[in-house]
Amino acid sequence: MGGSRGFATAALLILVALGCIAIAKRLEGERRMIRRIASLKDVNNRRHEPWVLEGLNYIHHPLRADASKKYVAQSLDMLWDIQKTGDIFFPKRWRRAALM
Fold it and tell me: How far apart are alpha carbons 20 and 17 in whole angstroms?
């Protein structure tokens, strides 16, 4: 009887550890996303516009809609700077990717 209690405790500890790992991975993903969006504020990181738009499409993909809602405002806030520094069609494509 005492052995089953030890097994249950070990199983519970494993579940708690797995939960902590999952939360840590999710938080790291959020930090990575914040760094990516912040890096787009630098005009040098937007030089190759097709790559930037592809990355923005991944950030605002419909499958990630719940997670990416909080980044829409940041993306649209950068639109004025993008109009000044980018190709003539870049702002339209940026807006489309951000509002996907």
Answer: 5
> Token pair for residue 8?
């249950």
For residue 35, is it within any domain? no
Domain membership of residue 62 as a residue range: 40-100
CA of 96: how far to CAs of 3, 13, 40, 48, 83, in Å? 60, 46, 16, 17, 14
**Which bin fits 87, alpha (ψ -120 to 50), beta or left (φ > 0)?**
beta
Q: How many structural domains is the chain composed of? A: 2
Residues 3-33 have pLDDT tens digits of 677 888 888 899 999 999 999 988 888 888 8
Half-sphere exposure of 63 (CA within 13 A, CB side): 2
> Among 46, 94, 45, which residue's Cα sits nearest to residue 74?
94
pTM confidence score:
0.66
